[in-house]
Design goal:
This protein has about 350 residues and is α+β, with helices and mostly antiparallel strands. About 35% of the residues lie in helices and about 20% in strands.
């Protein structure tokens, strides 16, 4: 029987918080379902669990350690001072202090967060990526001639489809410039503009470090979107239930895949995971064209862990119930060498 552990669940919050803040009310809300699901699973597994929420003060961790000594930190903090770009900095802090923690290390988080760097690395290793360009804030949004329409214009370092809408799909230079300016000014972000890849959108979940488990492939299906309309995973397509119902958007297990293509997808995702130095667990987003060309779109280390999200659903399909998935993530974190 595996040893029961002292586990500190590290959370992020949207405003200043006290050391022993009571978050029970927040944990009842839809926005906190991942945190609630993980805490419930840890309790079910019999571990001794406490949580700590941080906003802008990592010294709270030092104070917490005075009264609770964790064997492992279950890291669910993906922003600092409401800035998601700082998730790798939180992890760097844990690495420097020698804390064992779940999920991806700072190098993998940094490489995956910067969509252009991740695509450059993978392109060098002959993995298909869309043609793209980066336009920094303060620079004019002119399209390079090599970049062919239609194009998706997105924030360079955001995740969860923040900043992506139907207006991100552009077909003229005027639309291109307008969208670049909008992201620069409204979101205060640099831009990545990449050629739109028509095809099926797949989500592949992986768990592990050197030995990788790849779970069954999920797909975002656009049932009610007309054939000549762009099929893109906008923010509303991911998070607005009414919008999803209207357009028949469903996340489901991929059907009708040729076994050879399935094998290629799984092998490609393993290569991506290792090339981007991901550890812990991740979801990799792909587009597959009608000619079965596999294109990397982005990698998501530490994806959402709620029981009804793609990662946990894929694990369940492979026979790994939710508490057992959480236990696997814990054991992977304990074995990870941070350097």
């Amino acid at each position: 029987m595996k040893k029961k552990l002292n586990i500190l669940v590290l959370l992020d919050v949207a405003g200043p918080t006290a050391l022993d803040e009571d978050l029970s009310a927040s944990l009842q809300t839809e926005d906190w379902k991942t945190q609630a699901n993980v805490l419930a699973a840890l309790a079910q597994l019999g571990h001794t669990v406490e949580y700590l929420a941080i906003f802008d003060d990592l010294d709270l961790l030092r104070q917490k350690f005075l009264t609770f000594t964790p064997d492992l930190i279950f890291n669910l903090a993906d922003q600092f001072k409401n800035n998601r770009a700082f998730d790798q900095n939180i992890v760097s802090f844990l690495e420097m202090h020698g804390n064992a923690f779940t999920g991806c290390g700072s190098t993998g988080l940094t490489l995956c967060k910067h969509k252009a760097i991740s695509k450059k690395i993978l392109s060098y290793h002959r993995i298909h990526v869309p043609q793209f360009t980066v336009i920094a804030r303060g620079k004019r949004g002119s399209r390079p001639a090599r970049l062919k329409f239609p194009i998706l214009v997105k924030p360079l370092k955001e995740e969860a489809s923040y900043g992506i809408s139907q207006a991100s799909f552009v077909e003229t230079d005027e639309q291109f410039k307008e969208r670049v300016q909008f992201i620069h000014e409204k979101h205060n972000h640099d831009v990545i503009a990449e050629e739109y890849i028509a095809g099926r959108e797949f989500y592949v979940s992986l768990l592990g470090n050197h030995q990788l488990t790849v779970f069954p492939i999920r797909e975002l299906v656009f049932q009610e979107v007309p054939p000549d309309e762009p099929k893109i995973a906008t923010y509303r397509a991911k998070w607005d239930e009414e919008y999803r119902k209207r357009w028949g958007l469903q996340n489901q297990f991929a059907e009708g895949l040729d076994p050879g293509l399935t094998k290629d997808i799984l092998q490609t995702c393993k290569r991506i995971y290792r090339l981007l130095t991901i550890d812990g667990y991740a979801r990799i987003d792909l587009r597959v064209t009608p000619n079965n060309e596999i294109y990397f779109i982005e990698a998501n280390p530490n994806p959402m862990l709620a029981a009804d999200e793609d990662f946990a659903q894929s694990a369940l399909k492979s026979g790994l119930a939710y508490p057992q998935l959480i236990e696997r993530i814990i054991r992977t974190g304990l074995k990870t060498v941070r350097e």
